[in-house]
Amino acid sequence: MTPTQAALLLVAGLAGGLVNAVAGGGSLITFPALLGIGLPPVSANVSNALSVAPGYAASVLGSRADLTGQGQRVRQAIPAAVLGALCGSALLLSTPRAVFDVVVPFLVLGATAMLAFQAPLRRLAGQSRVHSPRRARATLQLAVFLGGLYGGYFNAALGVLLVAGLALVLDESLRRVGALKNVLSATVGVVTILIYSVFGPVNWAATAVLVPATMIGGYLGARLASRLSSRLLRAVILTFGTVVGLVLLVRAF
């Protein structure tokens, strides 16, 4: 890795961590940066997943107060997250590179769209109601499994997807939904670390640069969140994600 490439990853990691703390969707910065230094899409994907995973644990610590009273729900959801992440990781590692190259532009564009429509989804989710304990548990586990499947295969915007899915099946405040999302994101992150570090084509040099950068960026973002315009940051990320997705789409076809 050249000094220029390391500097690019450092900046991308700082920006990605900051954006994750303020608006979400930071992987739409770090993943394209890994592609930009020449990593193949699969290697960029697994390296990105490992790079952002440590930040999930920090987010759990920061949301402990909103996890109060959700112990049973967490115990019900974690197995589904683990199973989904295992299936998603296995799917990624068994997918030919040519297939992933075709799929990834749509995943980037889909993740960007989820970020764009996050607010309408949250408003829609506010209308959800619990019907019966058994049905509530089943719908929760299904939503978590699908989120874990997505996160195991392609990590970008996992938090956005989980918030949207959880809020649609739970009659809870968004703060409590977000706290549960943090636990499940951390769970998916642990699974992907264990699998990708052994079986995945991880670029450890890139990961070594990104991990501390994303953690520092996340810390700064949490400190500056009240001073920064999340709307402006979201607009920048949406534009960036759309451009990257379209470029990857043109290259794939």
Automatic annotation (TrEMBL):
<dbReference type="InterPro" id="IPR002781">
    <property type="entry name" value="TM_pro_TauE-like"/>
</dbReference>
<feature type="transmembrane region" description="Helical">
    <location>
        <begin position="142"/>
        <end position="170"/>
    </location>
</feature>
<dbReference type="InterPro" id="IPR052017">
    <property type="entry name" value="TSUP"/>
</dbReference>
<protein>
    <recommendedName>
        <fullName>Probable membrane transporter protein</fullName>
    </recommendedName>
</protein>
<keyword id="KW-0812">Transmembrane</keyword>
<feature type="transmembrane region" description="Helical">
    <location>
        <begin position="77"/>
        <end position="96"/>
    </location>
</feature>
<dbReference type="Pfam" id="PF01925">
    <property type="entry name" value="TauE"/>
</dbReference>
<comment type="similarity">
    <text>Belongs to the 4-toluene sulfonate uptake permease (TSUP) (TC 2.A.102) family.</text>
</comment>
<keyword id="KW-0813">Transport</keyword>
<keyword id="KW-1133">Transmembrane helix</keyword>
<keyword id="KW-1003">Cell membrane</keyword>
<feature type="transmembrane region" description="Helical">
    <location>
        <begin position="232"/>
        <end position="250"/>
    </location>
</feature>
<feature type="transmembrane region" description="Helical">
    <location>
        <begin position="102"/>
        <end position="121"/>
    </location>
</feature>
<feature type="transmembrane region" description="Helical">
    <location>
        <begin position="190"/>
        <end position="220"/>
    </location>
</feature>
<dbReference type="GO" id="GO:0005886">
    <property type="term" value="C:plasma membrane"/>
</dbReference>
<keyword id="KW-0472">Membrane</keyword>
